[in-house]
Design brief:
The protein is an alpha+beta fold.
């Protein structure tokens, strides 16, 4: 084996070490994710992932056929702008792959794509920094324990978070490493502007948080490279000298501008549309009643790793390593940002993945440096021994054996680090070591293991034979979905509200009924969905859920929910009427009885009783009375001049929402000059209107159409407001409480369509210009290389 390795060239030896390191990470990761289940055609269940499956399918079937990457999604929260505030790249990959392989398989493979790319991108980053083998391979190997990190499960990056629904974050994190590496190379060489810009833009298209982390990393790198040469950091192994600040600054300006141009199609609408997002109000750590910062930054299972990383920090600064100083600085800043993150701006636990990834990468870098040092000492010892043997007459001076310069570090270092990482991860899967030892390492040998989580997710809603431990109540779930589909065909399409209960996890996730739009081809919507921050209707839905559920989730902080366990069904059903919700689905006997007594609903179907894991339930489906899609107003809306778009609007409309006596007069953010203007929402003017009959109201994916028998009377459209809605045959639309649209018909047929905006138009034009520049740069570079190849040497 040693002779075979020695026969390889330096590059081949380095490549072999990288293959061993990256291959080990991929092999262990894939084994934990169960390839047989990944290739099964079951629909992925589990956590948020089990509801995310609806979005790439909508992208594939509705948006891409119309040449769009963003659009209106009517399936959740009475509609919201899809991929305007969230990220499209991962779902786009899934949608495109589904043209070749089954959609269900394409989605599964997309969810693990970022995790599989992470070791390769870490290796590529090391290579771009011109780190000598085995350091890049060690960086790749260090991603394995990070992927199996157990200190957090929903913040992003590790496999637990990916399986919980953060697969877009995982993809962006891998791309962020590659983007940083390309910028590090370009700032010294001046080359690769297009590649660096494209990868950084792709990072943003995957997720904004890793993109922001990459920007901070690039900024730190720029500062390091701006240090005068006599003080500048250097790597512990030979590396090209910095090309100078002028080259680095030029590269940063060109690549940064091009990347922003390539991202403008999404970034500009996102920036200008922040007024129509909401905050869930999650409380940061360190606040009263929340975990301390230290408990999350220094969990018991990671203290050994963090101690090694601290040694790596000292070595990096002592050796003035460009890469080591950069990496340790970025890691420390992640911890500082986690502690200093202002309350309400960003949930600080989303910053933890950068702290732990940085710590593991510092450990990998330190291992690579130590392997390099050991290999250098081995070569020096071999050289000294050969000289001594020559002087002693044991060897001839001309018979000196070749001393390999690369393989001890490149191969043995990568193998050792990969095996060490594998040893850390494999025990909880094979259960061959004492539980106490695993617990001391931060590994949980219980149901909270990646293999168990992945088996639960990827056996799907339907389940896979042979995985009975992870069975779900597929027959009951299928019956509920079939009942809703029949209702849509018989009674018409529309929004639905379902009673929430933690027991619904028996279906595969408590969010399983969010897939009603997926199962019914967008005929039946779900008032609950994911991407809470993307819809300003979210708060009113969760207030409804609290009124119509015995055990609601109440996830949004700061809302005036009613007493837990005491639903107000009558008020909840009246709220459904206000939002134009057509169907209500419940199974708790007390909720069903109250709904029937209210006379606000009509029972149309039921399924059950179903028994599963000790539960017995019968699902009852109701039509909500007097909940049309569009209805004429009885009083002129009042424009409240002091309300902004976010906090003040939410506070005023929640108070209006909870007081039925105020529903006759809608609060508005704008409207015709003839509408009353008031400074305070409590001091409205009740100006009556002539009655108007609204008929033939129909809603499709991005269009609402209806007829009126009288012009000039405001009509409220029970679809979530967003500025990209445009009216034909009416003036408006304007935003009215709680987050609906109102128009004033100028023709008897009114049509509302979801279209573009100034921000989307300008952003798209800038991106097209950026693409043209990128293509032009590549063409010029290709032409120069072709000329250089033909010119005489």
């Amino acid at each position: 084996m040693r002779r075979a390795v020695l026969a390889l060239g330096a590059r081949q030896r380095d490549a072999l070490g990288a293959i061993v390191a990256i291959g080990t990470v991929l092999a262990v990761t894939l084994w934990a994710l169960h390839p047989s289940l990944l290739l099964a055609t079951t629909l992925t269940a589990g956590g948020d992932t089990g509801a995310h499956v609806a979005l790439p399918w909508f992208l594939r079937t509705e948006l891409l056929p119309h040449g769009q990457l963003t659009g209106w999604y009517p399936g959740w929260f009475a509609g919201f702008p899809l991929y305007t505030y969230y990220f499209v790249l991962a779902d786009l990959i899934c949608a495109l792959a589904s043209y070749v392989i089954p959609y269900t398989v394409a989605f599964k493979l997309t969810t693990i794509l970022g995790s599989l790319l992470l070791p390769a991108c870490a290796y590529a980053m090391g290579r771009c920094f011109r780190l000598r083998a085995p350091i890049p391979a060690c960086l790749a190997a260090a991603t394995l324990p990070f992927l199996f990190e157990t200190s957090f499960t929903i913040s992003g990056g590790n496999l637990f978070s990916t399986l919980a629904g953060e697969y877009a974050f995982s993809l962006a994190l891998a791309l962020a490493l590659l983007a940083i590496g390309l910028f590090a190379r370009g700032m010294r060489s001046g080359r690769g502007v297009v590649a660096a810009a494209v990868v950084l833009a792709a990072t943003l298209a995957a997720h904004a948080l890793p993109w922001a982390w990459a920007l901070v990393g690039i900024a730190i790198l720029a500062v390091i490279d701006a240090v005068p040469s006599r003080l500048a950091p250097r790597d512990p192994v030979p590396a090209p000298a910095a090309a100078g600040w002028r080259t680095a600054g030029s590269f940063l300006a060109r690549a940064g501008a091009l990347s922003l141009a390539l991202s403008a199609w999404w970034l500009l609408p996102w920036v200008t549309g922040q007024a129509y997002t909401i905050s869930m109000g999650y409380v940061n750590d360190g606040q009263p009643g929340q975990p301390s910062y230290a408990s999350h930054l220094f969990p018991s299972g990671d203290r050994v790793m963090l101690g090694v990383a601290l040694v790596g920090l000292g070595v990096a600064w002592a050796q003035r390593s460009r890469f080591g100083v950069w990496l340790t600085t970025l890691t420390v800043l992640a911890a500082v940002a986690y502690v200093a993150d202002p309350q309400g701006s960003l949930w600080d636990q989303r910053l933890l993945p950068f702290w732990f990834l940085g710590g593991w990468l510092v450990c990998g870098w330190l291992a690579g440096v130590l392997c390099t040092w050991v290999a250098a000492r081995a070569r020096q010892h071999a050289e000294e021994r050969w000289i001594a043997d020559v002087h002693a007459g044991l060897r001839r001076r001309g018979a000196r054996a070749a001393l390999p310069t690369g393989w001890p570090a490149a191969l043995s270092g990568a193998v050792v680090v990969a095996l060490v990482a594998a040893v850390v991860v494999l025990p909880p899967m094979t259960s061959v070591v004492p539980r106490s030892f695993l617990t001391s390492l931060g590994i949980t040998p219980s149901a909270n293991e990646v293999p168990n989580w992945s088996a639960y997710n990827y056996s799907g809603y339907q389940g896979v034979r042979g995985w009975s431990t992870f069975a779900k109540d597929w027959p009951e779930y299928r019956a509920v979905v079939a009942m809703m589909a029949r209702a849509g065909r018989t009674h018409g399409c529309g929004q639905s509200m379902w009673e929430y209960d933690p027991a619904e996890t028996d279906f595969g996730t408590t969010e399983s009924l969010m897939l009603l739009p997926y199962w019914t081809d967008n005929c039946i919507g779900s008032m609950e969905g994911l991407l809470f921050e993307s819809s300003a209707t979210t708060p009113y839905h969760f207030l409804n859920q609290s009124e119509l559920s015995v055990t609601p989730s109440d996830p949004m902080v700061g809302l005036p929910y009613g007493p837990s366990g005491s639903p107000n069904v009558v008020l909840g059903l009246r709220h459904l009427q206000l939002l134009g919700v057509r169907y209500f689905l419940a199974f708790t006997p007390s909720i069903v009885r109250q709904a029937l007594r209210s006379r606000l609903v009509v029972p149309i179907a039921s399924t059950g009783p179903w028994r599963y894991q000790g539960h017995a339930r019968t699902w009852h489906l109701f039509i909500v009375r007097d909940a049309p899609l569009a209805i004429g107003l009885t009083h002129v809306p009042n424009v409240i001049t002091t309300l902004g778009h976010k906090g003040s609007w939410l506070s005023a409309t929640v108070a209006w929402w909870l007081d039925p006596s105020r529903w006759g007069v809608y609060l508005a953010q704008g409207g015709p000059a003839s509408w009353p203007r008031r400074a305070f929402p409590a001091h409205v003017v009740a100006r009556p209107l002539k009655p108007v009959v609204v008929s033939d109201a129909v809603a499709t994916v991005d269009r609402v159409r209806f007829r009126v028998d009288r012009l000039g009377v405001p009509v409220v459209v029970r679809v979530s407001y967003f500025p990209r809605w445009h009216a034909s045959g009416a003036s408006g639309p304007w935003r009215v409480s709680p987050n609906l649209m109102v128009v004033v018909p100028t023709q008897h047929t009114v049509t509302l369509t979801y279209e573009g905006s100034t921000a989307t138009t300008v952003g798209s034009l800038v991106t097209l210009l950026g693409i043209a520049i990128a293509v032009g740069c590549l063409a010029v570079a290709w032409r120069r290389r072709a000329v250089a190849r033909r010119s005489p040497r």
